[in-house]
Amino acid sequence: MQRIGVFVCWCGSNIAGTVDVVKVAEALKNEPGVVHSANYQYMCSQAGQELIKQAIKEHNLTGIVVCSCSPRMHEQTFRKTAAAAGLNPYMVEIANIREQCSWIHKDMAEGTEKAIVLGRTAIAKVNLNAPLTPGESPVTKRALVIGGGIAGIQTALDIADAGFEVDIVEKKPTIGGKMAQIDKTFPTLDCAACILTPKMVDVAQHEKIKIYSYSEVVDVKGFVGNFDVTIKRKARYVKEDVCTGCGLCTEKCPMKKVPNDFNLGMDNKRAIYIPFAQAVPKVATIDADYCNMLKNGKCGVCAKVCTANAIDYTQKDEFVEEKYGAIVAATGFNPISMDKFDEYAYSQSKDVITSLEFERLMNAAGPTAGKLLRPSDGKHPHTLVFVQCVGSRCASCAEKGKEYCSKICCMYTAKHAMLTRDKYPDTDVYVFYIDVRTPGKQFDEFYRRAVEEYGVHYIKGMVGKVSPEGEKLIVQGSDLIANKQLKIEADLVVLAAAIEPDKSARPLATMLTASMDTNDFFTEAHPKLRPVESPTAGVFLSGACQGPKDFPETVSQAGAAASKVIGLLSKDKLTGNPCVAHSDEMMCNGCSSCEKVCPYGAITYADKEFRGPNRTTLIRRVAQVNEAICQGCGCCTVACPSGAMDLKGFASKQIMAEVDAICK
Amino acid sequence: MQKITRDALIEKAQTLLDSGVVTRVLGWKKGDFDYDVTPALFTDIESMKKDFVFGDFCGANFSKYLLKETKKIGVEGKVLVFLKSCDTYSFNQLLTEHRFDREKVYAVGIPCDGMVDVNKIKAIVGDGIVSIDDSAEVIKVETLYDGVKELNKADILLERCANCKSRKHVAYDELMGEDGEVIDSNRFDEVEKLEKMSADERFAFWQNELSRCIRCNACRDVCPACTCEKCVFNNPNSGVENKAAANSFEEQMFHIIRAFHVAGRCTDCGECSRVCPQHIPLHLLNRKFIKDINSFYGDYQAGETVGSRAPLTNFTKEDLEPSEAVNREDK
Questions:
Q1: Is the predicted pLDDT of residue B63 greater than 90, yes or no?
Q2: Could you give the angle at which helices A355-362 and A409-423 cross, rounded to 10 degrees?
Q3: Is pLDDT above 60 for B331?
Q4: pLDDT averaged over chain B?
Q5: Same structural domain for residues B205 and B323?
Q6: Which of the residues A378, B48, B120, B220 has the least number of beta carbons within 10 Å of its own beta carbon?
Q7: Phi/psi zone of residue A592: left (φ > 0), alpha (ψ -120 to 50 degrees), beta?
Q8: Contact list, A590 vs chain B (CB under 8 Å)
Q9: Which residues contact A445 (CB under 8 A, 6 or more apart)?
Q10: Average pLDDT of every residue of chain A
Q11: What is the DSSP letter of A441?
């Protein structure tokens, strides 16, 4: 029989305000196994913990129940307290009478009654608890960064500078990501490439960093400290270590009509290409969808002109297996598709473009060599209309847009408007907005400058319709402040499209068993206190894959993720979680159901000898759990048809005892 | 379909026994009456020639018998098993679950055009059956009181044979006769009828059926999906270990729990209903699960291939969300 101590916390008035803590302590005194019951203002305080330690020694307690806040807050605290007093930390149970009781009840009698039930439930469980000892596992001192945009680059550089090896996996032929496509950065207006490309070079030259470009993660196994990752290196039909990046092939390739995705399809590239001048690695890649040689074996020009003999039409996708201790997701974002926004005539008129397309139009390396020209006729536009929040903050249009604020559009639209007016003073620039959101260092000053110094017309209101008429685009919108309808004859309309997580994030999250929100952004372990960690141990988040953010924020988050990775990789051993699955070999019939549902690959089978009747030996196939890999998720316990699988610390009979205690 | 005769099976067994491919044979043996044919193990051809039967009452599915038979200590060689098409699905399912050693079995697939339900015969001819001649399509039943009556086989088929899901053998070492096809049967019609009932009507239906349960455990013992080392219903701590229906447990829980335990693994072999002495249509519970699994996750036939993953222990991105299951119309 256990000797259980119950400790009821007031949490100041957080609990005591709606729960009669004295009454709870009194009521729980009579539960089976309870030999001591106390209440105190703040159990988590030094004095409160001292109270628990003393009681453990004085009453020879074998288990304790702390009725307090959520176990997410203080379970660790009280486990340490118990351990300090010589009690196994897994003999501690928390009854959550704050978040699940006092905070959600207003009536004292109701709250008190429920707190007693919750306490009783925890006591029923402790009665069946057994001491547990965690195991240890080693740490592979290498990190994987998935995504080679500015977030991935910064994270990789910071980890590598701390002395650990880092691999970057980038699905495109070059690292650089979205930042490489951006022209200028707000609020300082320095050129994006000028600040990004040195970092790309740093990555390429860093002896601790390896870049897997044109590659994808296809499989992740293992657990924190010990991930086994399979990386698919897509065939680029060019030997990466031989190609010098001279670019001769990209000039001679006869296939000239390949849409250039780097310029968002606004101009063409060849079937063999280097995405942009500063690409890292600076290696050509063949687009197999367009290459005549690969499609029908007729051409081979690039192989003929290549002096380095780097072209290899027979290249196949390769699969690399590598071990990592930590994984950082830095998969970034994309503007949403404008296909469903017919009201803005995006699909009807070439002169309705997205903001990212506008970036390329303004960029010296873009399709117009930096001259602002209309995509339809190459003429200089005089009247420009920018529309903000296209698909953002769009609760009513969830089927085509996003409910959230994309955060960066107010600032980049101000930037676009300002740059246009600066370079082309003969233009009229209008910005339609719902709100202008500029919280950030020197952000509001920047926006004010656009309005006051550059004379950009900001109109509070939304655009209802854009209709092409001849060479013009008729923009109909409302000015909510002047309370009138506007009709503007524009030459160019720029849509600030909402941003969404990259499509590769969802399958990656599945592989990593990392959780996502309904918008496919990765969720944090804690929104305030653990913003760069995923709830899955060993998986970290960097950049816009966690939520919309601008460059300064992305870079600081990237650094934060790196510091968490460094903290993990600095350890030689990790203490495991002892609440893992184990199989009762006498019950197990080796059917493999558990193995099939185990997301961690923690279950294997062994043929073991058992004693049969009449001094015989039976050989039976039974499940075995690798405790270092098992994360204690419990899938196997429900899949097991025989009831042979159980979780230590969360055994079925413990949970049944809890249910019984609630229903008593 | 070409009819396989008793003699052909004995001849096959003799060849295999003589050549040493197998050392024993799982077959059917006549009981006290012509219709209560029981499974039996034959170790020599003489006893087989004497007792072995093959006819319209050989419904028993031998797949589960292989568990014990292949684990026998001190017995060498393979066991010969005759498998009807429906039995082969159970055979595969057990292999998927690693329940017996395939190397120790020699499986001979035999064609089957349906087995007969003695209860249907009794419903027509009444009690006092003296003998049954099932050698032809028209079955002759002699009773104490009425003399010989002639019955059409199609009218007295076992439920599972009337709604046969497949004449195709999905596993065998050797096939006698020609293989059949998977059949687009009407086996879910009864389930649909139950689905159309109101919750109260359905509850009343099942209460009426299940209240007859005498908890003989025959359904569990015969079920090829029920192969736990230790059955939960034999657990003395469970409070439901008893073998006689003492309270409402059998009526309300026992068969439902069993259906849940075999969900996704049940091949719809129909043995549970065949052996139930109280004639409870237990197969309908399993078929409801199969039908739901099919409609939620796409068609899945347990035992169709070895090693297949049942939708309930598999995850694909196409799986429906729990809310879709709750809000579906045909629940």
A1: yes
A2: 30
A3: no
A4: 90
A5: yes
A6: A378
A7: left
A8: 97-99
A9: A187
A10: 95
A11: T
Pick from A616, A621, A643: CB nearest B73: A616
Distance from CA of B309 to the nearest CA of A (A): 8
Measured between alpha carbons, how far is A377 from A375 in angstroms, rounded to an integer? Answer: 6
Chain A contact present for B331, CB below 8 A: no
- Has residue B215 got a pLDDT over 80? yes
| ipTM at complex level | 0.85
Given a cut of 90, whether residue B116 has pLDDT beyond it is: yes
Region B304-322 average pLDDT: 86
Domains and CATH numbers, chain A: 4-126 (3.40.50), 142-233+317-332+502-569 (3.50.50.60), 248-305 (no CATH), 334-500 (3.50.50.60), 581-648 (3.30.70.3270)
pLDDT at position B178 over 50: yes
The answer, yes or no, to whether residue B185 has pLDDT greater than 80, is yes
pLDDT tens per residue, range A511-564:
998 889 989 999 998 889 899 999 888 999 999 999 999 999 999 999 999 999
In this prediction, residue B151 carries a pLDDT of 93
3-class DSSP state of B166:
strand
Task: Flag whether B44 is in a domain.
Answer: yes
From chain B, the residues in CB contact with A620 under 8 A are 229
- Mapped onto helix, strand or coil, the DSSP state of residue B123 is helix
Query: Two tokens at B13?
Result: 């067994």
pLDDT tens-place string over residues A158-184: 999 999 999 999 999 999 999 999 999
Does some domain include residue B182?
no
Contact between chains at A605 and B99 (C-beta distance less than 8 A): no
pLDDT given at position B1? 47
In which element (H, E) is residue A55 found? helix A46-58
Do the Cβ atoms of B79 and B106 come closer than 8 Å?
A: yes
Report residue A165: phi and psi, to 5°.
Answer: -75, 140
Instruction: Indicate whether B90 and B138 sit together in one domain.
Output: no
> What is the Cα–Cα distance from B34 to B28, expressed in whole angstroms?
12
**B227 reaches A (C-beta below 8 A):** yes
Angle between helices B189-196 and B283-297 (to 10 degrees): 90
Q: Give chain A's count of helices (H) and strands (E).
A: 18, 34
In a domain, B221, yes or no: yes
Q: What is the mean pLDDT of residues B249-260?
A: 86
Give A373-379 contacts, CB < 8 A, sequence gap 24+: A374/A350, A374/A491, A374/A492, A375/A266, A375/A350, A375/A351, A376/A349, A376/A350, A376/A351, A376/A471, A377/A471, A379/A471, A379/A491
Say if B313 is an interface residue toward chain A (CB within 8 Å): yes
What's the pTM value of the predicted model, to 2 decimals? Answer: 0.71
At B242 the pLDDT is: 64
Residues in chain A predicted with pLDDT less than 70, given as ranges, are none
Residues B22 and B143 in one domain: no
Per the structure, the complete domain to which residue B70 belongs is given by 6-114+165-175
Token pair 């059998």 in the structure block, residue: B250
Q: Is residue B19 part of a domain?
A: yes
